Amino acid sequence: MKKVLFFLTAILSILLLFYFTGSKDILNNIKGDEQYEIKNRETINIAGLNNIKYFNKYIITYNEKKIYFSDYNGNTVYERENTVFSDKLFVTDEFIIRSIKDSAEIIDSNNKSFMITEIYGEAIDVSRENNKIYIVTKQKNGQRISDTLYIVDENMNVAVKDKHFSNRITSVSMSDKSEAYCVSTLNTGNGSLSNTIYLNLLDDIELWSVEINDEIIIDTKIINNNIIAIGTENLYYYNLNGKLVWKIKNYNKITYHETSKELKKILILQNDGRELISYDFESKVNELYKTPVDFTGFKIFDNRIFLYDDNIIYLLKDGNFHELFRESSEKIIDFQVKNNNINILFANKLIKGIID
Question: Where are the domains of the chain?
Answer without folding.
Answer: 21-48+267-356
